[in-house]
Amino acid sequence: MAESSLFKETQSPQQKPYNNSQFPLILTPTHNINDISSFTDAIKSHKQWLISRLISSGAILFRGLQVSSANEFNDVVEAFGFDELPYVGGAAPRSNVVGRVFTANESPPDQKIPFHHEMAQVPEFPSKLFFFCEVEPKSGGETPIVLSHIIYQRMKEKHPEFVQQLEDHGLIYTRVLGEGDNPESPIGRGWKSTFLTDDKSVAELRAAKLGMKLEWLENGVKTIMGPIPGVKFDKSRQCKVWFNSMVAAYTGWKDELNDPVKAVTFGDGRPLPGNIVYDCLNILDEESVAIPWKKGDVLLIDNWAVLHSRRSFEPPRRVLASLCK
User: Fold this and answer.
1) Does the predicted TM-score (pTM) go above 0.90?
2) Which of 64, 103, 147, 288 would you call most buried, defined as having the most Cβ atoms within 10 angstroms of its Cβ?
3) What fold characterizes domain 148-285?
């Protein structure tokens, strides 16, 4: 069956032109896809075409589908056939819903979540992310996305010395984890759920596997990750990408245990220049696309190519996620 008989491209005023297409690519079903099983069948039969479109666009928003629950979203994720990536080493408070489906970051609705590549601060990160809007926000709550290689290009043009230091030295991420989760914090994942264990020796083994150092404290543990590259080479697109959580850590890793300015430094331990970090934040905002969520939306992001964030919102809002190797 031809692609056009199953999916058609639609437009949104928020999209930006990129690569002879629009970012993100928005696909809506034709009349041939009228329930969840026909959608998952279409994914399976057109997987290579969909992946090629993902590589060329960086992100695909599937809109107007009959996806109404976490179970059906799990079926969609399974239909793509990507291996699951366990959420080990990430900072966000989140909980398993069903199968491969988790809540997205559960930090309070009045907090923004800054731009980041998912788990960029650890060596094993997902290559693909799925998001699903189960309950659309009353207002706000968009998930802005931005193409990483464009951020690299703009930062290189404006701050060449800084980017050179970033490429030469990488970044060190430092975070203090409490014992249990703190749902009031955007980085409130405690060490037990971060390492999926309540045994300190097992946590140390899992941290070592990530290349992470642990320093046990009275009220938790300090994790030190790095030096880890802040710029990577995206082989599928043959370009350098701004692959880090620098802005997220420097502006957002704040709670009673953590000072965001100390959360990320150059790989040689030198502090980052705050004015350049905030300029990067402005560039991310300028280049980003934020399409308001609609119930049933499924957003597929190539984590190599695209950074994402979250705007504050007025509840209710329920967006679920799944991470793939």
Assistant:
1) yes
2) 147
3) Double-stranded beta-helix (3.60.130)
Domain boundaries, the chain: 3-105+128-134+292-306+314-324, 148-285
In tens, the pLDDT along 37-54 reads 999 999 999 999 999 999
**CATH code at 3-105+128-134+292-306+314-324:** 3.60.130.10
Measured CA to CA, the distance from residue 128 to residue 244 in angstroms comes to 16
Rounded Cα gap, residues 120 and 308, in angstroms: 12
Looking at residue 303, what DSSP letter applies? T
- Rounded to whole angstroms, the Cα distance separating 82 from 197 reads 26
Please identify which residue in the block is written with the tokens 């009220």: 219
Dihedral sign, Cα of residue 200, residue 201, residue 202, residue 208: positive
Per-residue confidence band for 91, with pLDDT thresholds at 50, 70 and 90 = low
Q: Name residue 169's amino acid.
A: H
Residue 160, class by beta-carbon neighbours within 10 Å (0-12 exposed, 13-18 middle, 19+ buried)?
Answer: exposed
